[in-house]
Design goal:
It contains 10 helices and 11 strands. The protein has 293 residues and is α/β, with parallel strands linked by helices. The longest helix has 23 residues, at 7-29. The chain is globular. The structure holds guanine. Guanine binds next to strand 4 and helix 6. Its EC number is 1.5.1.5, 3.5.4.9.
């Protein structure tokens, strides 16, 4: 029987821990974790994500601040906001929602966030700490950190002897995911749009992680029988069965096909998504604990 990995349930476990540790931190040190989320422009999907991040921060007992900036915001204005959040001792985590509007350069903004407040794990210092295996003092990007919680639940802490294939090589997901798997002793292949014979490479995977943004690209016969399949994609496709003009959310994996072959699989929605937010809360708490000494 294929196990469906319930991301909502596992995220609840993480959030329960975060809430408990937050109230202990507050009573022992008086420090309340502070998360600032910045969004520029009016992309509706980004607003949904950002609102749920801010709301969850409140539910965890954090100070939660949301800065919603108009689409015409300049590079200098955004940089000035990040600088002021860097200087604010009540803020322990700064997240600038991506993608930014086209006229803004995201990389200088991300690199201007203090590494110890970079709860997205995108600063070069945090990416570098992950690359050298320093998971203790660095902050790891939330979606791969969440996916790794699923992998550990299925396979334990030590992935020695297991083949992992990550499809996608982004800084936000593919690269850190591969590093985390490698740190846990998996044999890791990073595949991407230029990879030759992707289905054959995927079939070698005991752990298959898809993050390409191509709806339902990974077919059932790409999956090794019994493999753990983690689907990081979220795309909207037409759903005429729900009514004219309606859409539904799907991942990068053809779920119906893959679920017949996999040992365990994450659904979309309800898999990786809820874990990303939970790990953001965990990262913000970690920053606050470090600031508290
Ligand atoms: N856009 C989509 N996912 C993310 C994320 O994890 N962090 C940020 N900052 N932007 C995103």
């Amino acid at each position: 029987m294929t196990q469906v990995i319930d991301g909502k349930l596992i995220a609840e476990d993480v959030l329960t821990e975060v809430k408990k540790a937050t109230s202990e931190l507050a009573s022992e040190t008086g420090v309340i974790p502070g998360l600032a989320v910045v969004i520029v422009g009016d992309d509706p999907a980004s607003h949904v994500y950002v609102n749920s991040k801010s709301k969850m921060a409140k539910e965890c007992g954090f100070k939660s601040v949301q800065h919603t900036l108009p689409v015409e915001t300049t590079q200098e204005e955004l940089a000035a906001l990040v600088a002021s959040l860097n200087d604010d001792p009540s803020i322990h985590g700064v997240l600038v929602q991506l993608p930014l509007p086209k006229h803004l350069k995201s990389e200088p903004i991300i690199q201007s966030i203090l590494p110890e407040k970079d709860v997205d794990g995108l600063h070069a210092v945090n990416a570098g700490k992950l690359a050298i295996g320093d998971l203790e003092t660095g902050l790891v990007s939330c979606t791969p950190a969440g996916a790794m919680v699923f992998v550990r639940r299925m396979h334990g802490e030590d992935l020695s002897g297991l083949n992992a294939v990550v499809i996608g090589r982004s800084n936000l997901f593919g690269k850190p995911m591969a590093q985390l798997l490698l740190n846990a002793n998996a044999t890791v292949t990073i595949a991407h749009s230029r990879t030759k014979d992707l289905p054959a490479i995927c079939r070698t995977a005991d752990i298959l992680v898809a993050a390409v943004g191509r709806p339902q690209m990974v077919k059932g016969d790409w999956v090794k029988p019994g493999a753990t399949v983690i689907d990081v994609g979220t795309s909207r496709i037409p759903a005429p069965e729900k009514g004219e003009g309606k859409t539904r959310l799907v991942g990068d994996v053809d779920y119906v096909e893959a679920a017949k072959v996999a040992g365990a699989i994450t659904p979309v929605p309800g898999g990786v998504g809820p874990m990303t937010i939970a790990m953001l809360m965990a990262n913000t708490l970690k920053s606050a604990c470090r600031a508290a000494g």
